[in-house]
Amino acid sequence: MKKQIAVLPGDGIGAEVAESAISVLKVVSEKFGHEFEFKKGLIGGCAIDEYGTPLPDETLTICRESDAILLGAVGGPKWDGNPSELRPEKGLLTLRKSLDLFANLRPVTVFESLAEASTLKFEVVNGVDLMIVRELTGGLYFGRPSERIGENKDAVVDTLHYTRKEIERIVQKGFELAQVRRKKLTSVDKANVLESSRMWREVVEEIAPKFPDVEYDHRLVDDAAMQLIRNPKQFDVIVTENLFGDILSDEASMMTGSLGMLPSASLSADGPGLYEPVHGSAPDIAGQGKANPLAMILSSAMMLKYSFNLSEEASAIESAVQNVLNEGYRTQDIADSHSPVISTTEMTEKVKAAL
Ligand code: ATP
Ligand code: MG
Predict the structure, then answer these.
(1) What's the predicted TM-score (pTM) here?
(2) Is 224 annotated as a binding residue?
(3) Ligand found nearest the CA of 279
């Protein structure tokens, strides 16, 4: 199989972990006989420095022409004081919007050898394997008006806006993902308070009959937040709107012990998907070789699976990661008292060797 992959390393540790993913993918391409061509582009702070914009046209063109996009992370203290149009994060928001990446997939997998490092009890998290599917291009984040109002501007309004079509496509995606996993979908809303949630429930009910083999239920977001901590193993796929998904996925991320373990994918209807670690550019450890590359490496596995349909290759990466962790190798963020701490490149080499 021949594929072009846009690589946008971005800032801080983004650049370090992007290199890790590329080198792991090179091993995959040799082992399985695929041809991956990597095209690099600038995004975020480094693009502001070079081109005066966080998302240069050239980068957007590379992304549009590629089969998938791997992104490191953007941002850093250097650009913190910039006006909003010249902030690194703006580059990422514009990219997501331009490619219509409406479905954000965040798997939370607790590796047994890391379950001790979780903020929750071992018995509660060991074996957790769930996925949060968050709507990414609508809801409270983009609804207008969003402003101070009234004569004295001492009132305020934000708008939770969805069209039926926007809800349909994300719910559909949730069912499709559940169907290829453990066939269980939990739709999360706040239907006792919000009209948007009541329409969300209607849509779930309309789409459900197309997936007779998927068991589904509705949960209120407050209940879901509590259940995620009480008994996370009950969940397979959770589908929810933008803000609820944001909050629940940060909550769920704590089960894995480190931000450095969490991959993500953002998908559109038919264009290239974007794959990136959940963590940011981590300016506090940038350039020191301390970053955990596993979130980025696992994001590249998601790319193989969801954009290229290469499930076997994706599983090979996941198993390699699992083996390396079982052997006791740790970067500093997941270190415990009995394992020596290794660097970003050492961890990457271990994964490649395991592959
Ligand atoms: P953003 O605003 O971009 O989300 P943030 O400040 O919320 O950024 P991160 O940049 O992800 O968060 O960093 C949060 C903390 O987690 C930092 O202390 C950072 O060093 C640590 N961290 C994040 N990613 C990793 C990683 N891959 N390996 C090790 N530590 C990490
Ligand atoms: Mg953050």
Answers:
(1) 0.94
(2) no
(3) 1
Measured from the Cα of 89, ligand 1's closest atom is 3
Atom of ligand 1 nearest to the CA of 277: 27
Task: Kindly identify the ligand whose nearest atom is closest to the C-alpha of 80.
Answer: 1
122 φ, ψ to 5°? -50, -50
Q: Name the nearest CA neighbour of 351 among 68, 31, 1, 90.
A: 31
**In the 8-state DSSP scheme, what is residue 330?**
B
Tell me the residue length of the chain: 355
The ipTM assigned to this model is 0.94
CA atoms of 208 and 350, how far apart (whole Å): 43
- Residue 106 annotated as binding site: yes
Residue owning the nearest CA to atom 26 of ligand 1: 260
How confident is the model over 96-131, as pLDDT tens digits?
A: 999 999 999 999 999 999 998 788 899 999 999 999
Segments of the chain assigned E as strands: 2-10, 35-40, 68-73, 103-109, 129-135, 139-149, 155-161, 184-189, 215-220, 237-240, 263-267, 273-277
pLDDT average per 10 residues of sequence, the chain (355 residues) = 97 98 98 98 98 98 98 97 95 95 97 86 94 96 94 97 98 97 98 98 98 98 97 98 95 90 96 97 97 98 97 98 96 88 98 98
Average per-residue pLDDT for the chain? 96
- Is 222 designated active site? yes
Residue 128 in contact with residue 109, Cβ under 8 Å? yes
Q: CA–CA distance from 254 to each of 117, 206, 209, 249, 259 (Å)?
A: 10, 34, 34, 9, 8
How many CA atoms lie less than 13 Å away from 204 in the CB half-sphere? Answer: 24
How far is residue 91's CA from residue 182's CA, in Å, rounded to a whole number?
Answer: 36
Backbone φ/ψ region at 287: left (φ over 0), alpha (ψ -120 to 50), beta:
left
Tell me which amino acid residue 318 is: E
